[in-house]
Specification:
394 residues; mainly alpha; Serine Threonine Protein Phosphatase 5, Tetratricopeptide repeat; Butyryl-CoA Dehydrogenase, subunit A, domain 3; 68% helix; 0% strand
Length: 394
């Protein structure tokens, strides 16, 4: 109870930090906007040609010139935006882009002068990339700002595709991935997603080291492909053994008919609901166990090129795991339906359901154990953009 209470206390503190930080950000943005409104009001009333920031400084008793102050504010905003893009604080990026659309995010950072889009790609911040695309395609007076950022290169002639092709083991763990194979799936999906925004000839552009994005991706991900292949085949081998056992049990179950057979060769219990359930679940279990076995064997014999990790291999693994789960569930249902005739006359019918529910608990344990991998496979197949779990705890 104490441990549970501590967990909830920590969650509450993190949530409070997050809420307070957003409130602080809102207040800072509101104060700056109020000063901007005051600036325009003073300028309108006076009809003067002086810089409004200077007039505001005179009214407020500030000693900093308007131009310097404007530059300082814009510099702070750009630095905050770049820091948020690097660390993945999507709320800050959204609020700054919405509140200050006139401050164009064209500043660069780092020794190689990367723009904000390059920073997001380098740190694998997929949500930041999507947010920038949504906002920067409709900046007033800058209709080509998004294209300018996409087509830009840093001081080493790296495009955003060169940056997306690089593999950093410390960053790759930021993907919401389960196992090396799914990490590789996130890497190839991220690279393909970024590639969809650049011109086709960017695939052949070389940086100062004379490497194209394809070459960087191929050489950088060799180790991860080998690890993903090893993980995938190890998982498939283990699951194929289980699928073969379930197929054997399901076949034996489907051929053993409860009760006796009459003179016409028909089962005496044919009209009983439990017998119908037994017959149907036995066939389903056999069919799905064989399907699971085929899927896992196809993974073992598949090629393992980087592009195969994007859809082909995750889909086969998902179908194999789903079929295996259905076959195991059907096997237990067939057992319970057959066993029902053994206890039917000895106990009240109300006791059967709790008994068989406890018997089927292993299915629930299997589902819970495989749920993270199953959901990760579902998201990987459905979504075009991998999900990043790197973010700052505000």
């Amino acid at each position: 109870m104490d441990a549970t209470g501590n967990i909830f206390t920590k969650i509450k503190r993190v949530k409070e930090k997050y809420t307070w930080s957003l409130q602080l950000l809102d207040q800072l943005l509101e104060n700056y906007l109020n000063e901007e409104i005051m600036k325009h009001a003073i300028d309108l009333e006076s009809g003067s040609d002086h810089d409004p920031f200077e007039m505001l400084a005179a009214f407020g008793g500030r000693g900093r010139s308007g131009g310097d102050r404007r530059d300082k504010v814009e510099d702070i905003i750009n630095r905050a935006r770049l820091a948020a893009a690097e660390t993945g604080v999507i709320e800050v990026v959204h609020k700054i882009l919405r509140s200050f659309p006139e401050i164009i995010p064209e500043d660069t950072v780092g020794p190689t002068n990367k723009n904000i889009l390059m920073v997001a790609v380098e740190n694998q911040q997929a949500e930041i990339f999507v947010a920038l695309r949504q906002h920067l395609k409709k900046v007033p007076g800058k209709p080509n700002l998004w294209d300018d950022l996409v087509h830009a290169v840093d001081d080493e002639n790296n495009t955003i595709l060169h940056i997306a092709a690089k593999y950093d083991e410390s960053l790759s763990h930021g993907w919401q991935a389960y196992g090396y194979a799914m990490q590789m799936q996130c890497e190839i999906t991220w690279y393909e997603y970024v590639k969809s925004f650049v011109p086709s000839h960017y695939l052949f552009l070389k940086n100062e080291k004379g490497k194209s994005p394809e070459q960087i991706f191929a050489t950088g991900h060799t180790g991860l492909v080998e690890k993903g292949n090893k993980w995938l085949k190890g998982t498939s081998q283990s699951c194929s053994v289980v699928a073969a056992l379930v197929a054997g049990v399901s076949f034996a179950t489907s051929t053993s008919i409860p009760g006796s057979i009459d003179t016409k060769g028909k089962p005496t219990l044919e009209g009983h609901p439990a017998f119908q359930l037994f017959a149907i679940s036995g066939v389903i279990g056999l069919g799905f166990s064989v399907t699971a076995l085929i899927m896992f064997l196809s993974i073992l014999t598949s090629r393992t090129q980087p592009i195969d990790f994007k859809r082909n291999l995750p889909l086969k693994l998902l179908l194999g795991l789903s079929s295996l789960f259905v076959s195991i569930a059907s096997m237990f249902i067939a057992f319970c339906a057959s066993h029902f005739f053994v206890l039917e006359d000895k106990f009240k019918k109300g006791i059967f359901f709790p008994l068989y529910a406890v018997t089927c608990l292993p299915i629930s344990f299997y589902a819970i154990a495989q749920f993270p991998l199953y959901m990760n496979l579902m998201k990987a197949i459905v979504k075009d953009v991998p999900q990043s779990q790197k973010s700052v705890q505000l």
